[in-house]
Every structure is written in C-alpha cells, then in structure tokens.
Amino acid sequence: MPTLPTATSYLEWAAGFVGDSVALYKTSDAGATWELVNPLMQTPEGRSVGAIVPGATPDVLYGARLEINSLASVIFSVPGQPCVSTDGGKTWRFAAPLDGEFFGLRIVPSPTDPRVVYGYKPGSKAVYRSSDQGASWTPFLSMQPRESIVDIAVDRIDPSTVYVRTSVRSVVTSDGGATWKDMAPVPADPNVSNFLVADPLTAGRVYAVYRNGAVSESRDRAATWRAVIPTSGTLLDGLTLSTDGQRRYSWERTRAARRGR
Hints:
1 helix, globular, disordered C terminus, four-stranded antiparallel sheet
C-alpha cells in the first residue's frame, strides 16, 4: 500500500497563467508555504507548458504544450502535445502523441508507478497506456462502434483497478485491463455521469458525478452504488475528497450553472 499524504509530506502543484506564461509552485506543508519551482515552464522549442498533472512521485509531472485558440472574440489556451518532466517541473520533454492525436488529450498517471500513465481524448475510441512515461503508447481499451470515451479513473490504492465511462456504458477492470465488465447501474437519474473520481484512501471506492450536481458512491468497485449527494440542479465542474478521513467534499460551479442554465 502506498504511503498516504500527510501535512508534512504532501506535495501539491499549482499552475498559474500570466499572459501566455505558466509558473509552477510547490508546497511540502499542505499549502502553508509555497516555493517557486519554475517561473516559466516551456517545451524544448520555447512554447508554454500547462495543464499540470502530478505523477506517482514528486519529481514526475505531466503537462501539455499550450495552443492558442479562439472562439468568437475570446482567445484561450487548449492542451496540445503531452509533455513530461522528471525533475519536478524544472525541464520538460515531449511525450509521444496518442495515435497521431495532439490536441485535447487527457493524461491520468498511475498513483503508484511513476513509469505508468494512461492517455485518452474525450470522444475518441480508445484508452492508451504507457509504461515508459509517455515515450510510447499501447492500446489499453478499445470502444465498440457506437461508443466513445468520456472519462477514466484509476484506483488510488489498487492501480490494477481502472474505471472507464463511455457515452453508452461504464466498465471496470480489476486485473490491469486483462478483463473488463460492465459497472452496475447507478441510482436512477436521467443524467449520465459527467466524470469519475477514485477515493484517495480506500481501494475499490469510486464516485460518479452527474451533470445535475448529484454524486453517487460505490464501495465495491462499482458492483453497487448509493447516492451521497442528492440532485442539486447545479453543474459540478470538480469534486475533491479530503485525505484526513473526514469525507468532506468541495467543488466548483460553472458560471452557466450559477445563471441557472
């Protein structure tokens, strides 16, 4: 079992935008103090790196080259080619693309093995796995003809358990992808789950978050579910679970949700 985070050993990484630059900070005391690690994270050719995701050890981080995009009169950055750092964010190198794809990729590192990382593009037909920090990828799960990937979650204590939410169903493996089975139906709700969150303390516990603000919990690797937060009518953007055993929840709401849409 991996060592659980404590107030003295827990590392959390924050990326902040200043124009088209991204600075990286770290804390080793649960946020009481912060240290500037890199004032300007860049790829080898000088492009900004963002969308940071921590790996299994503090020195391994994943991110993406930021690409400038626009919609109407709004200019914004979107994740491009995935990147990896093995020195705590001081320097970055490119990871290989997933099946030729560069844009909109999502990276999900193993919580226990710094070499292993999963990658997928929402709406695509496959999840990929890398055992060399993204230098190469192999297919991990392929979708049926009318399915597409929505979200995945890796068990924080038992990384051989991986949950995958698709546009049609949800599946789970408990043997590292050798076999798959459908998850049990979640409590009756007209909204499909928006994303999945693995519990940071307990193996086999996973949460499904819905577009209408409801949250369901499974304690047996998605064999059964129970509702833990009722429908709120508010779109949830994120769900955070405490690691101190208090089972607290926090989340952010979108502006559209605050306007009641």
